[in-house]
Amino acid sequence: MAEPKENLQMEKIVSLCKRRGFVFQSSEIYGGINGFWDYGPLGAELKRNVKELWWNAMTRQREDVAGLEATIIMSPKIWEASGHVATFSDPMVDCKTCKGRFRADQTDEIPCPQKPSKCVNQCHGEKTEARAFNLMFQTYVGPTATAADIAYLRPETAQAIFAQFKNVLETSRQKVPFGIAQVGKAFRNEVTPRNFTFRSREFEQMELEFFIKPDEVIEAISGSVASVPETGHPGEPQPNWGWQAWHQYWVEERVRFYEGIGLSRETLGFHHQTPKELAHYARACTDILFKFPFSKKDAQGNVTGDELEGIAARSDFDLSQHQRYSGKPQHVFDDELRSAWNKLPKEKQDDLWRRYYENRKNYLTRSGVEADAAAKQATEDANGLAKGNYVPHVIEPSAGVDRLILALIANAYSEVVKTDDKGKSETTFVMKFHPRVAPIKVGVLPLLKNKPELVAKAIAVRDLLRPWMNVYYDDGGSIGKRYARQDEAGTPFCVTIDFDTLGEKPELLDTVTIRYRDDGKQERLKISELLAYLLSKIR
Amino acid sequence: MAEPKENLQMEKIVSLCKRRGFVFQSSEIYGGINGFWDYGPLGAELKRNVKELWWNAMTRQREDVAGLEATIIMSPKIWEASGHVATFSDPMVDCKTCKGRFRADQTDEIPCPQKPSKCVNQCHGEKTEARAFNLMFQTYVGPTATAADIAYLRPETAQAIFAQFKNVLETSRQKVPFGIAQVGKAFRNEVTPRNFTFRSREFEQMELEFFIKPDEVIEAISGSVASVPETGHPGEPQPNWGWQAWHQYWVEERVRFYEGIGLSRETLGFHHQTPKELAHYARACTDILFKFPFSKKDAQGNVTGDELEGIAARSDFDLSQHQRYSGKPQHVFDDELRSAWNKLPKEKQDDLWRRYYENRKNYLTRSGVEADAAAKQATEDANGLAKGNYVPHVIEPSAGVDRLILALIANAYSEVVKTDDKGKSETTFVMKFHPRVAPIKVGVLPLLKNKPELVAKAIAVRDLLRPWMNVYYDDGGSIGKRYARQDEAGTPFCVTIDFDTLGEKPELLDTVTIRYRDDGKQERLKISELLAYLLSKIR
Predict the structure, then answer these.
(1) What is the Cα–Cα distance from A331 to A318, expressed in whole angstroms?
(2) Which of B118, B393, B446, B514 has its Cα between 20 and 30 A from that of A42?
(3) E strands, A160-237, in order
(4) Do A211 and A176 meet the contact criterion of CB atoms below 8 Å apart?
């Protein structure tokens, strides 16, 4: 199905992004480069705030998550282990007439790249058979550029976390269950980047890999795996949680995060991947969607939304793959398991052993290990339980930063129609960002530019606030114009220093007018209370 | 000269980086990948703190700098304009005997890559003529992988700033002089990565491009260019500053930044590039050096240090190049210049016109434009002055994040020899990070793990501090061991909750022991005063 050509709401958003310095086309003065976008001054602040809030919520505010910052270029063996070298590809066809190359499932919707004017939307030439086109960007490391020097730009940040799992475990004093968090760039050579920054070739991810005990281990230690209600937040983590409780916990934690930065539940959607959609090793995956202006309607006419984040229960696939490909053991030793195991009745041991064995054997055979070898390895793995050893399972909340920024911009965008005395109406817009993510937290405005006392006081207020938040000092133009400027930037508060601040009305000495972006209301506040008030709103 | 094989101090630093989770080798379980390093939990926090402090100091705490976050892959035309495609290369030779490829100036010091055991340090085979090897990593964007699809991983973040100069200018309400700041990854396919993280193939930069008026424009507006003392900080920026004052200002601002995060002036060195070292377009470049353990001695036996940051006065080269290559005007319009120009005596106009003309012509001819065309273009450019138009000059403070992290680690590393009652001595180490950059700001320790009242109180203290700083809660092992653990992590403060906190001595109710990392001294502090005290130290 062709993308709608006209989407007024998106056009407005793209236009304001450029005009107000949220997003620019990369390399614009050279005609741009398809699928790459830069963040201008306001966009860079917005993005920094979002990444900082995520990092804070995921690592610093928790006991059970450690951070990591790994390289974009890693050993190519990592992408063999992860399966990306073999299968991270789109089927492509070449056109024998126009020589263009198309995604096999999109020949009808993509303009012919060789002669865009001639055969927009449909190239009628005969097509070759589809061939796999790997979406990883490839380069060479070192001076010789031989096949042995091939490396890839990471197509996701997750694999670095798996590859460093043991190093983090050994240096951070964490024990399973615990997580490793990372924020960073990733790259996919998308055949057809689209929807502004939503699907781009260079993007940023915020990924948590949360390592948990396999259900058999929980059962050995706690007697049984906790059952949790099917919906809603399951509460504070418990020792007897299995993968389902942890999966649900992270879905709900992530929704709380989105709510906490201004995306209410009504703006979100959920997609629970069906068994057919799931990767063979995955047990569940819940996508958190946002209803973008370009999101399509389902058969019932409802907008379901497009993916902001996927929360996947990935079993022990990832660490197991790295164990097989690197030859380095990736299991953990769990003292609790070892002592619990020895106290279990033989029947229970046998039951857990069998189930663990089956899971391991399934993984191994599905990963291409021959039946005999798989059975032998699975036996060894299951025998490890008695020694307290297992390969952790993982729950992966994986969010796209750029998509979230676009969602926040789309969500914040509001138009206001103002009609003046003469009945002439004008449409302006206000960016209603949550104060936590707003690029600028407060505008500080002296009523007049040419009154040194006002300016000096305004600068004192600016300097009071600036160590704690991003302040925009503005003395240019009428107060109304300056408010409008901050409304467009999404600044939630403006503080005006006027003659009352200087004591023209003695009872108002050292007070300021604070003006609220969303309703335009104004209040009087003491300067001595300003910092604490603003901090309570923006944090 | 060969790198010293043995450097005990560096060995200790590399070892602690791995052991305490500051830095890991990228892809270590796969044998690593040469020139790539990951930051573990403590390293990731340290790096985040440094980047955040830089961003804060350079953008949020200033009126005159806007932020940018551009892509790593940009239009390849940017690297033609910048000169990187043509000249960003090392001369390489191939060995006809061992088939290895060497940097032409390092054949004597690099192990033969093909037979490292056989000809370490010297390959005796006949070498080919030297050929240029471009240090940019190359890839293809889009599915066809033709020559037209070649793109590069940016070898520096600076060029994105120049390419987006006009967009930022038009959307940010900034006027020259102003700067654009960016933090981000860059990539150089170094032939011989070395000195741990100091010279790696993937690294991060913090770059400011600060755009200023050409001296001729200052002279037209202010009558003359301010003369500044040759050393020391020239103070708050003034309208009549020329490039020399701005250059000196930024050198001194950057030194203050380093001092503010614990690198005293004694640990730093300075290198003023000689006319021979300077790029043809550069007017000055001052390198700020740090005395690393691997830094070499000069002829007088003094350690001079290795580069942390270069502060270059780059004239109007960069914007001029992009103007020529993109065909998009990169000049600014300056109202002040236009009105000042018209009031100048004809003589003065002619003098300034001539000097501006000469500078422009020099730039053009040195950049390969033929004499006639250069003269014509320079005439047009100089005629622009009367209309208020000029291409801004730039001062570029460009810092390497990874080098700075390594400097902070080397600077913080201190050994302490403790001798116990039996005369047995043990060497431990303390990481004396400045509290502003320390990965963990405070350890919160209940005296005993098995006293619920102590634990509850300790958790209350943790939760009081955690929204404001990175807190490490630790209840494992003796207090001495826990202090030692935080000393190794570089945590400047530890807070212990003991029975006095609970009121065993009533006058000490709700007080805690605060223990200082650097001298081990302890004091008693009220919990109600703790947050404000710690904030005053870490900010």
Answers:
(1) 12
(2) B393
(3) 178-187, 202-212
(4) yes
Interface test with chain A among B20, B52, B71, by most A beta carbons within 10 Å: B71
- The pLDDT value recorded for residue B62 is 96
Beta bridge partners of A471: A442
Report residue B305: phi and psi, to 5°: 105, 170
Question: Is B35 an interface residue toward A (CB < 8 Å)?
Answer: yes
- Among B24, B139, B172, the residue with its CB nearest the CB of A41 is B172
With contacts defined as CB-CB under 8 Å, which chain B residues touch A34? 141-142
Residues of A within 8 A of B92 (CB-CB) are 143
Kindly report whether the peptide bond that precedes residue A492 is cis, defined as omega within 30 degrees of 0: no
Total Cβ atoms within 10 A of residue A380: 12
Q: With 0-12 CB in 10 A as exposed, 13-18 as middle and 19+ as buried, what is A347?
A: exposed
* Candidates A34, A41, A328; nearest CB to B29: A328
Q: Which of A400, A191, A155, A437 is nearest to A289 (CA)?
A: A400
Low-confidence ranges of chain B (pLDDT < 70): 1-6, 108-124
Closest CA to A35 of A272, A197, A143: A197
Residue B283: both structure tokens together: 């007017």
Which two tokens mark B197? 């993280």
Chain B residues in contact with A41 by the CB 8 A cut-off are: 66-68, 168, 171-172
- Whether residue A83 is predicted with pLDDT greater than 60 in this model: the reply is yes
- For residue A426, what are the β-bridge partners? A418
Give the strand order in the sheet containing B65-67: B65-67, B178-187, B202-212, B393-400, B306-313, B284-290, B268-272
ipTM for the complex shown: 0.94
CB contacts < 8 A (A, B): 235
DSSP classification of residue A281: T
Q: Does A164 touch chain B (CB under 8 A)?
A: yes
Q: Is B26 close to A68, i.e. CB distance below 8 A? A: no
**pLDDT confidence band for A4 (50 / 70 / 90):** low
d(CA A209, CA A197): 25
From B66, which residue of chain A is nearest by alpha-carbon distance?
A41
Among the partner-chain residues A18, A48, A191, the one whose CB lies closest to the CB of B143 is: A191
- What does the pLDDT look like over A408-429, one tens digit per residue? 999 999 999 988 889 899 889 9
Cβ of residue A30 closer than 8 Å to a chain B Cβ: yes
Ramachandran category for residue B388: left, alpha or beta (phi over 0 → left; psi -120 to 50 → alpha) = left
Q: Which residues of A touch B45 (CB under 8 A)?
A: 67
Whether A1 shows a pLDDT value over 50: the answer reads: no
DSSP-assigned states of every residue in B308-360 = EEEEEE-TTHHHHHHHHHH-----EE-HHHHHHHHHS-HHHHHHHHHHHHHHH
Q: Is A328 on the interface with B (CB under 8 A)?
A: yes
B303 touches chain A (CB under 8 A): no
pLDDT score of A110: 64
Q: Which amino acid is at B345?
A: P
Q: Is A61 on the interface with B (CB under 8 A)?
A: yes
Residue B131, classed as helix, strand or coil, is: strand
Tell me phi and psi for residue A337, to 5 degrees: -65, -45
Say how far apart CA B267 and CA B285 lie, in whole Å. Answer: 20
pTM (2 decimals)? 0.95
Q: Which of B149, B148, B157, B153 is nearest to B189 (CA)?
A: B153
Contact list, A70 vs chain B (CB under 8 Å) = 26, 38-39
B239 exposed, middle or buried (CB, 10 Å; 0-12, 13-18, 19+)? exposed
Q: Which two tokens stand for residue A137?
A: 């960007």
pLDDT in tens, A167-207: 999 999 999 999 999 999 999 999 889 999 999 999 999 99
Strands (E), B127-220: 131-134, 138-140, 150-152, 178-187, 202-212
